Fold these 2 entries.
Entry 1:
Amino acid sequence: MLLTLTTTRRPATDLGYLLVKHPDKVHSFSVPTGTAYVLYPEATEDRCTAALMLDVDPQLLRAQRDAFELSQYVNDRPYAASSLLAAALAKVFRSALRGASKDRPELAATAIPLEVRVPVLRGTPDLVTRLFAPLGWTVTAVPIPFEAELGGGSRYVDLTLTGELRVADALNHLYVLLPVLDDGKHYWVAPDEIEKLLRSGAGWLAGHPEKVLIARRYLAHRRSFATTALQSLEADLPAVTEEEAELPVVRRAPLAEQRRDAVLAALTEVGAARVLDLGCGPGALLAALVKDRSFTEIVGADVASRTLEQAARRLRLDQLPDRQKDRIKLIQTALTYRDDRLRGFDAAVLMEVIEHVDLPRLPALEAAVFGHAKPGAVVVTTPNVEYNVHYEGLTGMRHSDHRFEWTRAEFTGWATETADRYGYTVTIRGVGESDETTGAPTQLALFKAVSA
């Protein structure tokens, strides 16, 4: 059973640092079903390939079952990639799966050109493509025919994946999807498999179009396990924690993405490098900021410690290399009080925050953010109440925790007064699909500090 991982990023032999396996050695590991080997068929400055080979011992494999059957000796288990190979991968590349590299932390956090080859894998070209293509891979799945004397095609493919991804992401994709394609785990699936799936699927599984199939197959068709996993994935989706979560129509994912894109564009417009996300919540915007290397210092602030814990999990702070981790800080603070830790930043973001503040307390927030913290720019987004007529069945405000929702005129009036009071200029723009009469669903104000 074989899997190879190749890179052409110079010096290509740095792949050894990412996998924590020296290219000049053959590494062997005992696993419950045999022996796993890691070796490098090629290791040059221009191209380096690491091979994971699993030598399955039929006696050990049979020992995990209760009864003797000929099929336990005569089968495809020693050859076709399956949960056996995934389990070996998890043991052999444990640090690489976490994205940890003591010697090359920046490289571990960088997408590099990769090629993965799995010579024998159960599955159809269509299913393999549906599983890997949404993750950024270019998929080549060649059906493996039977011998000429038998004729016809087998149920196996020779798989090649190419793309630019982090090594950790590539390994986690394989760890989850190899057993999914094989659809036959070699061990008893217990409840802790749910956590393994969620951990390895962090950052990609929640948005995968085949997540239901993946959860069911990975969890051996245990319906209760799959249901629990899917509910957890839904809870991790950014859309669930967005302001539109309580709206009676499905608009939240597109609008949430457009809002984040608009905020990022505003930050780029003002050339911000050190950014505050005030009222950061579970970290939807923080996750987008972290992906952009132009933001060199990112601080997420929220009043709720539990919410900050959710943000830390979403960002996988415990798995980030030290240099990456140093870019990000999460702090607990109330935005209506002055906090010296928030001073001196290029920009601050209040994305869907002000409407959660009681109107009598809003001047305190203004004084703390615009007056005391005094960032170079402030980006504020809030719902446009005029647009609510487009949400059929909506009564009242868009979210049960909103203290108010403003018309475009009300928001413009508040933004103009705040800018004048604290020495900023301000421009107003809409976010989302705009209606000729009611405007866009979200309104955004970009404040820029007036130079002294």
Entry 2:
Amino acid sequence: MTRKMMGCVAALVTATTAAGIVGLGSTSASARGEAPTVAAADSYARQHGAPRADLRLDRTVQVPGGSVAHFQQYLAGKPVIGAEVVVQLDARGKIHGTTGAVTSAPRSVTAAPARTEASAERTAKASLRKAGAPEVDATAAAATDLAWYDAGLFKGAASKGAVTLVHDVEVTPTAVDAVGGRVLVDANDGTPVYTETTQRDATNRRVCDARNQYVTNLDCPSPVRTEGSAASSVSEVNVAYDQLGATSSFYTSRFGYDLSTQIGGGALRATVRACYRDSGGDYGCPMENAFWTGRSMVFGQGFASADDVVSHELTHGVIQNTADLVYSYEPGAINESMADVFGEFEDLDNGTGNDTSSARWLLGEDLPIGAIRDMKTPERGSQPSSYRGQYWQSGSSDNGGVHTNSGVGNKAAYLITDGGTFNGQTITGLGQAKAEQLYWRTLNALTSSSNYAQLGQTLKSSCSALASGGTAGFTSTDCQQVSKVVTATRM
């Protein structure tokens, strides 16, 4: 069965038994044999305009109820950013769905860059400065890989068959005046085609206190409280320490995922009472904001007190190391929504803060400025509850509306968990325990360029895989409810 939405075809693959999964570094999928997992990925690529695609197994991830196999598309031996295919398998090896995106660019392209890596790194740092990100100095560390860029995939849209050879430059954040990001630089004419800072607005623990001064290093070089040490005399340090621990415990107990090693490089770092400014302006002191730098957390005064905000920002680190959703347009909106969803799950689980019925599904209800989003009723914050519904943002501001269009994913999570009647669909909620497992599997089955149609499909195929073996008590009735939610939110 195929379904077209936004110019993309989402294919559901009939369940078959996977004989095995091929190893990393193979050549084209069709040349590697007829293992059903490989055949499913190959078939998906053909349906989306990429016959004989060079798909290589990037990783296989164990998830509740089975596993997901991620394939990366290559052209001329170089990866196509965002061109990925994911095959979902249950615990018995049956395939329950295939999703993703591929480029339809011809295989005859050649990967012969005219510009050097050093030149690309200089351009990347200049682009970050021009974009209004914090100043990036010449000594900031940078890592560069050669890859292909398909502009359509970065918006969650269909490929138009045009690719650009780019230097994919990752600038590592260090000091405030050297915060980094990711820049794709045309490998032939040297112009930046995509720029993204590593910041997102909004257990081995290390907590620093900036004392409402402008910080000089975002990596918490001089912690005032570390793992196992005595409580600080500064309450916000202790609150941040406790919230980091609570979020870490949530991910470990629910999904067996160690935040310290997976996203923290061996430690979870945070700076509280921080003030911040960059080339684009001064964000105030005290600062009314919080963000994830790519390696650590930074909180303005009072912002570490909101457990869901802490979990939201740390979840950006989890997303970065799982689906790695591009932070623009629909993939970026799903990125923000997933951070909200897991942030709220942790908030509802930990027994701290305001968990009254009136605060349920509010994000940031414990902030000094009050709640910043309503996941149950996104319209209260001028966000859409359904795809391209009221308040949907179609422009390019805010990276293509990532903080606005996240309302669609948030509404879906509320309905899947608690149920309700919406857009002609009456849904029986699965409850939080099942919803957590469904969303964890779904996050691990998304690709970096997933759009809302693919999120809807992945929620359904994830549920199907869970119900196949009765994992976490999932049944086919649960999956009917998930399908109703996808219909109601028009994904």
